[in-house]
């Protein structure tokens, strides 16, 4: 019989502690991620405040949510991490949330218990170092045949050579989690991003708050994190977690835009009346609300399912991404429309969220790709059930 603490409850609801966590992170964002700070940081090198990032880890302890306490984490679970990422997304927080919190830390937690994992994970949880996830994937699915980095060596001595394209947060990362093909297959390595043999070419991207870089390795020293027998499972687990946390971030950004649109519709006057009193604007905002509530449910279903093993992780992650990507881009577009001419200007914050929405929608697979995966999964399940029924007659 499973431990009762691990049995999913019949109805999902946030606990008082989780509500307090949300309040604490929202207060942190008000101090460190107001619009003026975001605009300043996105033009900076690096594009985040190391002091604020360290505070997230050392003082608030939110970088260790989902990391067991015996690994110097904060305990908790994926739902707690999703709450944090949602609030950071609502504030358009500039920092390596995607590369470090959403992908690299989950990969390290799932990796074998070695000194490499312990040392690397401890620094990331504390917020003293940052990471990027240079792992081959296609639409959020680990792709071993797309690995373009070669590993040479054995035991503890390895060097990597090759190139990984479009790595989010790699521009200023201290650590790179890298997949490379060795003599026995694709393995997972830890590389010092500031060490010899590593060159990072920062890319020009639409969303300046989320930097990307192409990383080139030339005989770069590397430490083995997991061998070919475990690396694919670890990478896929991290990509599932990353997809769900990315969905939570999309929920946060969409909620901010919805609140912004409602406020503007109440204040903006046209023909002597608030524009929110006109049917066309009312219906648009109502549709935005429905989209937002749907996406919130999908995101937290994904976090809950992965945390409690209550649903297939591939299906839960794809549902979250398909729903939240579509909702965020739709709400971002509608926000610009509600705001009229001012919504198109550089001075208004709507364009910052618009760019984040469409950038996020391209990370870990588009909504269309995840819908295809959901259909494939469901049709396979139906076919399998039919074959069993026919066989047992």
TrEMBL record:
InterPro entries membership? Acyl-CoA_Oxase/DH_mid-dom_sf, AcylCo_DH-like_C, AcylCo_DH/oxidase_C, AcylCoA_DH/ox_N, AcylCoA_DH/ox_N_sf, AcylCoA_DH/oxidase_NM_dom_sf
Q: Which GO terms describe its molecular function?
A: oxidoreductase activity
**Keywords carried by this UniProt record:** FAD, Flavoprotein, Oxidoreductase
Task: Tell me its cofactors.
Answer: FAD
List, for all copies, the residue spans of the domain called Acyl-CoA dehydrogenase/oxidase C-terminal: 235-378
Entry keyword annotation includes Oxidoreductase: yes
Task: Identify the domain of life.
Answer: Bacteria
Q: Which family does it belong to?
A: Belongs to the acyl-CoA dehydrogenase family.
The name this protein carries in UniProt is Acyl-CoA dehydrogenase family protein
Protein source organism: Mycolicibacterium septicum
């Amino acid at each position: 019989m499973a431990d009762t603490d691990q049995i999913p409850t019949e109805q999902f609801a946030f606990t008082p502690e989780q509500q307090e966590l949300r309040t604490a992170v929202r207060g942190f964002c008000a101090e460190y991620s107001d619009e003026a700070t975001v605009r300043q940081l996105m033009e900076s090198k690096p594009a985040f405040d190391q002091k604020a990032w360290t505070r997230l880890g050392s003082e608030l302890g939110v970088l260790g949510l989902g990391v067991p306490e015996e690994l110097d984490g904060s305990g908790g679970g994926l739902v707690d991490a999703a709450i944090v990422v949602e609030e950071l997304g609502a504030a358009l927080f500039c920092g390596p949330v995607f590369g470090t919190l959403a992908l690299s830390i989950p990969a390290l937690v799932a990796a074998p218990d070695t000194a490499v994992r312990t040392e690397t994970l401890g620094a990331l949880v504390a917020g003293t170092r940052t990471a990027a996830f240079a792992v081959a994937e296609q639409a959020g699915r680990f792709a071993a045949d797309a690995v373009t980095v070669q590993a040479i060596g054995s035991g503890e001595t390895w060097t990597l050579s090759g190139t990984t394209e479009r790595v989010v947060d790699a521009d200023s990362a201290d650590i790179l989690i890298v997949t490379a093909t060795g003599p026995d297959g694709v393995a997972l390595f830890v590389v010092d991003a500031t060490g010899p043999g590593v060159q990072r070419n920062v890319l020009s991207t639409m969303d300046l708050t989320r930097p990307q870089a192409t990383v080139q390795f030339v005989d770069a020293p590397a430490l083995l994190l997991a061998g070919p027998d475990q690396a694919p499972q670890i990478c896929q687990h991290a990509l599932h977690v990353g997809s769900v946390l990315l969905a939570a971030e999309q929920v946060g950004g969409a909620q901010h835009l919805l609140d912004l649109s409602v406020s503007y519709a109440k204040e903006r006057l046209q023909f002597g009346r608030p524009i929110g009193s006109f049917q066309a604007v009312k219906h648009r905002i109502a549709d935005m609300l429905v989209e937002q509530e749907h996406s919130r449910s999908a995101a937290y279903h994904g976090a809950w399912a992965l945390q409690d093993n209550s649903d297939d992780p591939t299906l839960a992650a794809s549902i979250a991404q398909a729903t939240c990507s579509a909702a965020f881009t739709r709400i971002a577009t509608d926000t610009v429309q509600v705001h009229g001419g001012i919504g198109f200007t550089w001075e208004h914050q709507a364009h910052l969220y618009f760019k984040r929405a469409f950038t996020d929608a391209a990370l870990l697979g588009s909504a269309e790709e995840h819908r295809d995966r959901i259909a494939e999964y469901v049709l396979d399940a139906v076919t399998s059930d039919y074959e069993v029924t026919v066989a047992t007659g």
